[in-house]
Amino acid sequence: MKPTGPIPPGFAADASGELLIGGEPAGALVAQAGDTPLFVYDMAAIRTRLRQLRAAMPPELALHYAMKANPYPALLERIVSEVDGLDVASAGEMRAALEAGMPPSFISFAGPGKRDREIEAAILGGVTLNLESEGEAERALAAGKRLDRQPRLAIRVNPDFGLRGSGMRMGGGARPFGIDAERVPALVRRLIAAGVDWRGFHIFAGSQALDAAAIIEAQAATLALAGQLADEARAAPPEVNIGGGFGVPYFNGDVAVDIGAVGAALSQALRARAAILADTRFAMELGRWIVAEAGVYLTRIVDRKTSRGETYLVTDGGLHHQLAASGNFGTVVRRNYPIAVAGRFDAVPDDEVSVVGCLCTPLDRLGDQVLLPRAGPGDLIAIFLAGAYGATASPQAFLGHPAVRELLVDETFRS
Amino acid sequence: MKPTGPIPPGFAADASGELLIGGEPAGALVAQAGDTPLFVYDMAAIRTRLRQLRAAMPPELALHYAMKANPYPALLERIVSEVDGLDVASAGEMRAALEAGMPPSFISFAGPGKRDREIEAAILGGVTLNLESEGEAERALAAGKRLDRQPRLAIRVNPDFGLRGSGMRMGGGARPFGIDAERVPALVRRLIAAGVDWRGFHIFAGSQALDAAAIIEAQAATLALAGQLADEARAAPPEVNIGGGFGVPYFNGDVAVDIGAVGAALSQALRARAAILADTRFAMELGRWIVAEAGVYLTRIVDRKTSRGETYLVTDGGLHHQLAASGNFGTVVRRNYPIAVAGRFDAVPDDEVSVVGCLCTPLDRLGDQVLLPRAGPGDLIAIFLAGAYGATASPQAFLGHPAVRELLVDETFRS
Q1: CB-CB contact of B221 with B172 (8 Å)
Q2: Which ipTM value was assigned to this complex?
Q3: Residue among B302, B308, B332 whose CB faces A173 most closely
């Protein structure tokens, strides 16, 4: 038997023992969507999450959503009225953000390989470009001239420190992202001299960190760096995006970020910030942390089979929808996400099984030797933490299966 | 500097030094397709490959294409007239195989999570189902009755041995695939008694093996097992699919499979086969080996930047098209695929760079500290071995970039 990650808070069973998602039984949601496999996103859970975040963070801190985590249109449309900005990573995401109703001045566009036509679209749309290199800065200046528009430009800074314990280090040392901190003041002066609307800094040190102390340390360093760069450039940044980096507990032993501790430390750090940052708008950018726990992937068991003493539950889903849960995206050692039998959510688990997908590859494993209540064909398997980096971060076309379904449950829109 | 895999045979430069794919300069192919990123597949290279395979293998061996490796419609349409059968892994692939013109009796459908409607579609289409469990067998029998059709059913066998040195072991021990060999004879008798068209066995021991000796050993064991199972069932299998398993050299130090040695040994093994297999049709199923080397992924450099002493070529492509090349699909340690600057294919490499994609994640790396001729914005990067498990095996929707282009070059269709 191998351990599974902790089931996120807020999930419970109805009287019959069936898993409720956003107040609805899993089976009813599948019936509503028409079929499995299905991603269900609970908008109320996202709102709760954001409320907790606002309560923990300094009131002046703007909260941005990094839409790469989950760009599902119905979710995006609603999240727009819950956050203070959207961070996008392509012209396609930018269009979706604008269509969802976010004003362009609260959209920023980061990404190391922006093509000229993406830069032009951002300038025409009035969106802030987070510049990833001096070369990109020159291309943005040229595009502004070509289009006769004043571009809104921020500088993505590659800090000289990383985020300790982060799943992905995005700063410190050599990086493809952003401009090395030591070269940033010169670029600020170049942008201001060129007459653009310089928006400030975007400093992102890492992602998927669970340790509050590490996040606190990185945020303090980020504020210090922003002040230092502004002083060197002799220019006050209108905005500083301090990045995100809050992880969620996917695996056994993982513990949620102590956002209260992070917020308290950030309040203190903001109070102690450099004088030149007095009027700066500070934003935090989170994707995964906001949406991951609000999503559940539901897949139906097609077959229960044994092979040489091991039992397999074969489902109609798989890594083509849940690449990360299968252990094949950015992880070295495969570990189990939290998993349950949706119809027997409150039953005692006493059956050791491996839950596999329908793809013809040994990589397609959703639960490896996990303990579940006994289940068989027709039963629904729930994989938790499916709200971020699921449908769009998986190779959906692999092996020619139909597109996965997605469904947003939003209680506020019920009678 | 880190090594790269060997560039597959057959690639050369034109007089100006530009990489030719299927006789066409890379830049002209991009112009024809309209833009980068672009997968180019060379049909002539695929035909050459199949010719070499036929020459090496026993003449009576049927050659099947596992279309999951690359289901691009124009490629599939042409490959149908070059091979003796297609292996599909979903109802979607089955439809594509039929539309490409393969007669249903030469299509077999394997996959551990077939749903009832997929089983019904296969029976109605006259396609052979490779049964993955006794439960699936019963569902197929029931579907045949419901539809009043005689199903074509083969049994996928989980052998009691694996393929040594294979990238993915698909046999030996407990597996989600197929039916444990020791239970197969009883199922054969059950199928025959039920009056179905029993087609024989599908025995697949592993994939992506480069060592001819290991493949020879697995094939001999496969033939022995087929004979033993047939004897125990007292039924001669009309067909035996002996699987594939031939790898291609992706990485530095990899050496191509010695297909001459494999073919010679297989001829001998077939001559020595059990008497009950005298009239059996033997098929080999290959996907990657047939198409991988015929494909090149072309992506344009958008930015050349340095960060703390390291140089990055930032391209408009990335892991959303080339997940495996980025090291994030089924590999534990990231290694470099063969890579080149398309416009300077014959130039001396003297510039150490990392080639990254346009996605905002450190996972998006196509070449890590590789040595290339100097290149910058506008130049095309070529990643080789892109003919298999590329476009469909990657998370294309990730970060909202446009769909990748694909282009088949087929010289036989030129004047």
Answers
A1: no
A2: 0.96
A3: B308
